[in-house]
């Protein structure tokens, strides 16, 4: 089941022209959101923030806007069946929406953390401040992580500075402060990242942007990544080169962060 160009379609296949730039070049923008309380308007769903990010990319690329009313209608239709929506916009304004279920091991990952692997520095997302359909690099990096029995991959620049994971933004805890890499490093301005950053500031807790240098990441007590689907996932170990760094996935810092995600 999916929604395409104003219609709900019962199928697992989609017909596209062989000349479609979305097929040939990955020329689409997309967002993935989690629908809380079965409502697009529930605050944690952040519906407007997702639409705003899509619209910002469309304007930057000079692409056509979708029919936003029609897009919302499609999102509501799919949300009746799935808690996760992936909304894709083509250059000519066509919308494609399909749904997914939450990962079956989500609670285990949230409670016990997962392993990550630092990908080769030549791996970088294309146009990192936008979510485009060209997601080959994240997919390849996840395949590389699988070889090390890791569930996530971390992108690093040529200096070895950690940037983000293949699916989310990085968070570190140390010196009684939450830290996250700066947007100026060339990372996605994640909606969950923005939500958590603002909540921490409003609640008076210390949160700062900082380059995740090799020295800095060794000083952290806890590490995690965030996105709109999995919320916060601790990283218990990061494999890089011939060694690895261990972090505490049960650190007392995590409950204070998760209280901003209570629906």
Automatic annotation (TrEMBL):
This protein's GO CC annotations: cytosol
Molecular function terms, GO-annotated: lyase activity
Any one GO biological process: carboxylic acid biosynthetic process
Pfam families according to UniProt: Aminotran_4
Entry keyword set: Lyase
Keyword Lyase on entry: yes
Family, similarity comment: Belongs to the class-IV pyridoxal-phosphate-dependent aminotransferase family.
Protein name: 4-amino-4-deoxychorismate lyase
